[in-house]
Amino acid sequence: MAANALNLCSFFIFAFLIINGAKTKPTVGIFPPSCNRIECPKFEVIEANNGYEIRSYDSPMWMSTAPIDDISLVNATRAGFLQLFDYIQGKNKYHQKIEMTAPVLTQVSPSDGPFCATSFVVSFYIPKENQGNPPAAQGLHVQKWGKTLAAVRQFSGFVKDYDVAEETAALYASLEGSKWFDAIRKAPTADPTTTYTVAQYNSPFEFDNRVNEIWLLLDVKDYFGM
Ligand SMILES: *[C@@H]1O[C@H](CO)[C@@H](O)[C@H](O)[C@H]1NC(C)=O
């Protein structure tokens, strides 16, 4: 019964994505201005195309919240970010302050709970300097991704719940027919349960030049020969 309900939720979400898929304009290739000021994970662009970019990340590490069940990505991200902000301000085992980085990720997956709620994990990119020994903190855990391939689409402005569905659908649509499309469907090594990830590069106090991204992680086995 629970499994059926979950499938039904997923079906409606997916149908919604397909129907609304083709509307928005593709954007890729914008360097987030905040990455000139604060540390961002390095990546290589493997392919830039009409509406998507394929990036290779070399083993980024993240400090992540426990899953947050909510109907709103925006609200869940705010709640998660507050925990992570406390963490970098020194609310951690070593009372250590950690430099701000970008992006903040929100990993989205279907929730086990009732009512078609969604499960969100919010993450902070751990600076290279702290990756050897990131201080622990209650309620947070480290994610080590290993080599990661992501299909990426960019959009601007403040992230809204509605945009996220639309931009994700557009990213799927742009990948259709490409050699990457099958790799999305296979479970990615980094995180088998995440459906898609939203990356945000700006603080809530910046109003211009805001850069956000949808990431779909790809199965890397074929590409890296793993
Ligand atoms: C998000 O949070 C705001 C402020 O707490 C609230 O008014 C709003 O209803 C929430 N949105 C959703 C979709 O839950």
Notable features of this structure?
Multidrug-efflux Transporter 1 Regulator Bmrr, Chain A; 10-stranded antiparallel beta sheet; 27% strand; binds 2-acetamido-2-deoxy-beta-D-glucopyranose
What does this structure look like?
With 226 residues, this protein is α+β, with helices and mostly antiparallel strands. It has one domain (2-224): Multidrug-efflux Transporter 1 Regulator Bmrr, Chain A (Alpha-Beta Barrel), CATH 3.20.80. Helices cover 26% and strands 27% of the residues. The protein has helices spanning 2-19, 73-88, 161-175, 181-185, 221-224, and strands spanning 43-48, 53-58, 61-65, 68-70, 104-110, 118-125, 140-144, 147-155, 196-200, 212-218. Strands 1, 2, 3, 4, 5, 6, 7, 8, 9 and 10 form a ten-stranded antiparallel β-sheet that branches. Helix 1 crosses helix 3. The chain starts with a helix and ends with a helix. The model is unreliable at 1-8 and 11-24 (pLDDT under 50). It binds 2-acetamido-2-deoxy-beta-D-glucopyranose. 2-acetamido-2-deoxy-beta-D-glucopyranose binds at residues 71-72, 75. It comes from Stephania cephalantha. Belongs to the HEBP family. Residues 1-24 form the signal peptide. Keywords: Signal.
How do you describe this structure in short?
The chain has helices at 2-19, 73-88, 161-175, 181-185, 221-224, and strands at 43-48, 53-58, 61-65, 68-70, 104-110, 118-125, 140-144, 147-155, 196-200, 212-218. The chain is an alpha+beta fold and 226 residues long. The site of 2-acetamido-2-deoxy-beta-D-glucopyranose (NAG) has 3 residues, from loops.
